[in-house]
């Protein structure tokens, strides 16, 4: 018989697992890893509200995507265009970024799998006599290691020609040049930290769902068990 067991710690672990997976996925897909040096607006670009020129814009560059401003001469204006600059994996600007993409993708796949499985931990607490929380916690730890490897390799690619075109001639491996780090990079770091927190917290979720109070509720014949 399936017993639905919901505790404060198990629910918190489930929510954190889902948040971490989405955060890493969004960061990986974003083009805001590097914010390029400011480029002045052209003379045709004016702020029609104030009549003055627009502020310089800063293009952004991701692992495989970018955001830049394109001109529409017939309308005397420019629009920001975002999309992948690489049509296939081999066109990613740096070999280090290719390795980063592989490690991040592997970590994110594991995190998404764990996030999917975590939803069902309310009904299923073990697989082949193994605690599903402990198995998921181990997978999250492995995913965290993949994410760390990807984040360590990513700055090594700052010396590629693509990065130099955005960050200036002084950009090199682990040196930003005229660029700054975008929100996607910080989100990936924060998600990696939370991944290890989830891995540790999975043990608390397992303890909460196998506590004496839960066993007493099961012995009383309750199918829905909610404990703080």
From TrEMBL:
<keyword id="KW-0278">Fertilization</keyword>
<dbReference type="GO" id="GO:0016020">
    <property type="term" value="C:membrane"/>
</dbReference>
<feature type="transmembrane region" description="Helical">
    <location>
        <begin position="96"/>
        <end position="120"/>
    </location>
</feature>
<feature type="transmembrane region" description="Helical">
    <location>
        <begin position="132"/>
        <end position="154"/>
    </location>
</feature>
<keyword id="KW-0472">Membrane</keyword>
<feature type="transmembrane region" description="Helical">
    <location>
        <begin position="183"/>
        <end position="203"/>
    </location>
</feature>
<dbReference type="Pfam" id="PF10242">
    <property type="entry name" value="L_HMGIC_fpl"/>
</dbReference>
<keyword id="KW-0812">Transmembrane</keyword>
<protein>
    <submittedName>
        <fullName>LHPL2 protein</fullName>
    </submittedName>
</protein>
<feature type="region of interest" description="Disordered">
    <location>
        <begin position="40"/>
        <end position="59"/>
    </location>
</feature>
<feature type="transmembrane region" description="Helical">
    <location>
        <begin position="12"/>
        <end position="31"/>
    </location>
</feature>
<keyword id="KW-1133">Transmembrane helix</keyword>
<dbReference type="GO" id="GO:0007338">
    <property type="term" value="P:single fertilization"/>
</dbReference>
<dbReference type="InterPro" id="IPR019372">
    <property type="entry name" value="LHFPL"/>
</dbReference>
<comment type="similarity">
    <text>Belongs to the LHFP family.</text>
</comment>
């Amino acid at each position: 018989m399936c017993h639905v067991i919901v505790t404060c710690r198990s629910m918190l672990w489930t929510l954190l697992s889902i948040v971490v997976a989405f955060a890493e996925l969004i960061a990986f897909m974003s083009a805001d890893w590097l914010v390029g040096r400011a480029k002045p607006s052209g003379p045709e670009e004016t702020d029609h509200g104030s009549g003055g020129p627009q502020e310089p814009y800063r293009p952004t560059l991701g692992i495989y995507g970018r955001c830049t401003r394109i001109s529409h001469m017939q309308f005397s204006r420019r629009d920001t265009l975002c999309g992948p600059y690489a049509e296939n994996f081999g066109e990613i600007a740096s070999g280090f970024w290719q390795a980063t993409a592989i490690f991040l993708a592997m970590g994110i796949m594991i995190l998404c799998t764990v996030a999917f499985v975590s939803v069902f931990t309310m009904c299923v607490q073990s697989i082949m006599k193994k605690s599903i929380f402990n198995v998921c916690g181990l997978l999250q730890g492995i995913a965290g290691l993949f994410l760390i490897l990807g984040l360590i390799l990513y700055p090594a690619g700052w010396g590629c020609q693509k990065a130099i075109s955005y960050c200036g001639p002084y950009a090199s491996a682990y040196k930003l040049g005229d660029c700054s780090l975008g929100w996607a990079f910080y989100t990936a770091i924060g998600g990696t930290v939370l991944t290890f927190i989830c891995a540790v917290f999975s043990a608390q979720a397992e303890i909460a769902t196998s506590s004496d109070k839960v066993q007493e509720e099961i012995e009383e014949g309750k199918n829905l068990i909610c404990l703080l």
